[in-house]
Amino acid sequence: MIRACPPAAAVVLVAIASTLACSAASARPEGCPPGSRSDPARSARIATQLAQALAMLAHEPDAAALARRWNPAQPALCFGERNEAREQERVAVLSDALDDVNAAARAAHLLHHHHVTPVWPAQPTPSCAHKVARAMTAERAAHALERAVQRVLGARVAQDADRPGLQAAYAERCRRERAR
Ligand SMILES: [Zn+2]
Fold it and tell me: Is residue 80 domain-resident?
């Protein structure tokens, strides 16, 4: 079996340079949530595409903010059936259906949730309307960054920013949380 990264115990023994070279690919297999898995080679390809895109978008504040705060190893990229930010688990799950360029664009969206504007911060808000409005603002900014990454990487840019039902889903999530 060919390993992309040395096992954890060996990392201590190898030069720091090789550890750094491996950081983009060191997704913790045990850190991927059930139904998803790590793919160090794919993670590294996506991280490279995303880094190039963010460099080309350095004039855009959200891209610049993400470039400053993003560590390619944190959160880990995992792969599964659907895209999920998984902020609490420090993991971003990307859909198997995406090619590398569109996965890089989606990663920008999910990492925006992790590092730039959390969609669902823990702080209390005066009302569900307020919390949902804030979530939708965060989603629109993440979608704008996703489209910008698609554009600079030459992918077809999706027109529809808001997933149908997203606002209603956030409203329901808030209602459930407050009912606890
Ligand atoms: Zn989102």
Answer: yes
Ligand 1 centroid, distance to 179 Cα (angstroms): 24
Classify residue 105 as exposed, middle or buried by CB count within 10 Å of its CB (0-12, 13-18, 19+): buried
Domain encompassing residue 22: 8-179
The predicted structure's pLDDT at residue 174:
93
Residue 90 CA to ligand 1 centre (angstroms): 15
d(CA 121, CA 46): 27
User: Could you tell me if residue 1 is inside a domain?
Assistant: no
27 C-beta neighbours (distance < 10 Å), count = 27
Q: From the first residue on, what is the mean pLDDT of each consecutive set of 10 residues in the chain (180 residues)?
A: 37 31 41 92 95 97 96 86 87 94 95 94 88 95 96 82 80 91
Does residue 94 sit within a domain? yes
Distance, CA 18 to ligand 1 centroid (Å)?
Answer: 33
Flag whether 3 is in a domain. Answer: no
**H/E stretch holding 94:** strand 91-95
**Model-level pTM?**
0.79
- Position 127 scores a pLDDT of 93
The total number of structural domains in the chain stands at 1
